[in-house]
Amino acid sequence: MKKDAARATQPGRNEVPRQPKGYSFFQDVYDVVRQVPKGRVTTYGAIANYLGTKLSARMVGWAMNGAHNIKPKVPAHRVVNRNGLLSGKMHFATPTQMQELLEKEKIAVSEEKVVAFESLFWDPVTQLTM
DNA sequence: AGCCTGACTTTGT
DNA sequence: GACAAAGCCAGGC
Fold it and tell me: Is residue A19 assigned to a domain?
């Protein structure tokens, strides 16, 4: 990742504020995603990194697999892959829903891709850990 | 208990 | 620059 703008993660980062036992990995993911400000987007890697499992961004996406059943609404539409591509749109009720929601938040989407994604990028590690 | 899968990311050829 | 492979870890079967 050379998109330094996107990754403000320093090597000397502190320990990860993990949730106490009893909390599922999923809960952490949902919690972070819910904290994403409206009009902003984040990536699986950023969330994973925040959770300390940056090496397994898959888990983040995987966790979202159950995001449809959890009670609070999870703005999964604000979560895209590191390319700003709406990779998970197909997992929504409708593939277009994700883009609809993004555009609704003034986030321009072009061909399944977030425009100015890096500008709208919201890194939990940078925003929540400081 | 063990194998498979997965909405990703990075690195190597 | 494009393609291929590996790594990650937790949930599901």
Answer: no
Ramachandran bin of A117, using left for φ above 0, alpha for ψ from -120 to 50, beta for the remaining angles = alpha
Higher-pLDDT residue of A1, A26: A26
CATH number reported for the structural domain that contains residue A54 in this entry: 1.10.10.10
Query: What's the CA angle centered on A35, arms A73 and A108, to 5 degrees?
Result: 80
Q: List, for residues A14-33, the tens digit of each pLDDT value.
A: 444 545 555 678 888 898 89
Residue at A56 is within a domain: yes
Nucleotide nearest to A49 (CA to C1'): B9
Distance CA A120, CA A116 (A): 6
Residue A85, phi then psi, degrees to nearest 5: -85, 140
A43 C-beta less than 7 Å away from strand B: yes
